[in-house]
Amino acid sequence: MASPKSLVMEPAFDVDKLSYEIFSILESKFLFGYDDPKLFLSAGSLPNTPPKTPARSAAAASGGRVRVLSIDGGGRAADSLIAAAALVRLECSLRMRSGDPASRIADFFDVAAGSGAGGVLAAMLFARGPQGRPLFSAEEAMAFLAGNIHRKRWSGGRRWLFRRSGGVYHKVFGEMTLRDMLKPVLIPCYDLSTRGLFLFSRADAVESEGFDFLMRDVCTATCAGGEEAVEMRSVDGKRRIAAVGGGVALGNPTAAAITHVLNNKHEFPLAAGVEDLLVVSIGAGEAVHGVSHGSTPSAAEIARIAAEGAADMVDQAVAMAFGHNRTSNYLRIQGNLSVFGGGRNLSKEDKKKVMKVAEEMLLQRNVESILFRGKKLAEQTNGEKLEWFAHELMTEHERRKTSPLPMVIIKHAMTPRLSSATTSTVTTTVTSSTTVTTSPSPSHSALAGRVLTAML
Fold it and tell me: CB 3.0–4.6 Å: which of 53, 69, 395, 446 could bond 112 by disulfide?
């Protein structure tokens, strides 16, 4: 008589074949090293199962990939500087590789998602400036963040960057709305009126004014503290939101960005799976000090720990989803706050150490998430990983110059703007290598001239 063990292990017995396959895949792929190709159970090894050749999308067959930038929303002042430093390094590398000193981050990405301070960074880097060019470089954006971190305005870990009048954001974005972003941008907040996540999206804004919002309000909403909701309305005045911070609602927006690309067939017609994506996720600074032993954590500390844990879970889930493409299509940059001892606030002396923050973070070894096994240190540093990613971005950038297949077709407005918030009329059509843009109104040019002096 066969032993119970043999009955379980042999699919030839009365064990449902599909259940056996599912259990085998779960056991070998997830529990015992999903990134080890030797542990994958091939379909051809199962009885009476013919080998299959995996189907490839048109994008994968042509070598094309949609380029995604995701920036976390941290709970400490230095978090935004960690992310900005990584973007400065990436932009410098792209300029060197392209031979164009005017190149900017937005030239090499197709979609950007940002939460909290990361949402402010994404908005600044993808805002339309004069002649249809990005309004800010990564270095200018970092200078803005460093110059607007105020110890007295640190409230709930979120409200350090805006005033109730919205003055700082008004100086940066003026009357710009989501429609005025160069490319698809996703910025989350939590809407207390519906008790659910709300995702500000350029793709939705160009279709309906009910989803179009002033960028100064979007940034205020995603950075808002939990102690007081920010009331805001859409451009047409019909949609109202009672917003609290995006960092609380969706601290790591990477999964939301990937979902948006794979389901938005109008703008990303060839993206069918993770093999068609090239994703960099810039994490908020990881604290080196936790809650003191024996002390009672405050509500803000509990919220911070929960947000960091949720961000790590998203990172692990995304890494798992990419599978074998994880090392070629997905990069996570996560620094720590050892330079400032994990503190929440920055003094004037600390602000002068921004370059040191960049050096410390870039010299740290990159950390990779492994499902069910925590994290491991990579051989390469964060700086070396960013150099590799810049090479991949340039490869895709050059490929599109000769490819007949458009990887991205950016939407333009389906309905006319009826609000007084209009400051320019811009029509953009983006294919694989062509951009046609009408000149913006003088107000944008004047805005660009004022911005840097107003920021600091």
Answer: 69
Residue 453 pLDDT greater than 90, yes or no:
no
Is 369 a catalytic site residue? no
- Choose, from 62, 80, 93, 115, the residue flagged as catalytic: 115
Q: SS3 for 196?
A: strand
The number of helices, as runs of H, and strands, as runs of E, in the chain is: 17, 12
b/e map of 383-392 (b: 16 or more CB within 10 Å)?
Answer: bebbbbbbeb
What's residue 133's pLDDT? 94
Please name which of 413, 396, 393, 414 lies closest in space to residue 405, comparing C-alpha atoms. 396
Q: pTM value?
A: 0.76
d(CA 249, CA 75): 12
Residue 25 corresponds to which amino acid?
A: I
Q: How far is CA 358 from CA 66, 82, 117, 140, in A?
A: 27, 7, 17, 15
- Extract the tokens encoding 158: 């979120």
For 210, the token pair is 């009910």
User: What is the C-alpha to C-alpha distance for residues 179 and 206, in angstroms, rounded to an integer?
Assistant: 6
For 112-126, write each residue's pLDDT tens digit: 999 988 999 999 999
Instruction: Tell me the β-bridge partners of 240.
Output: 233
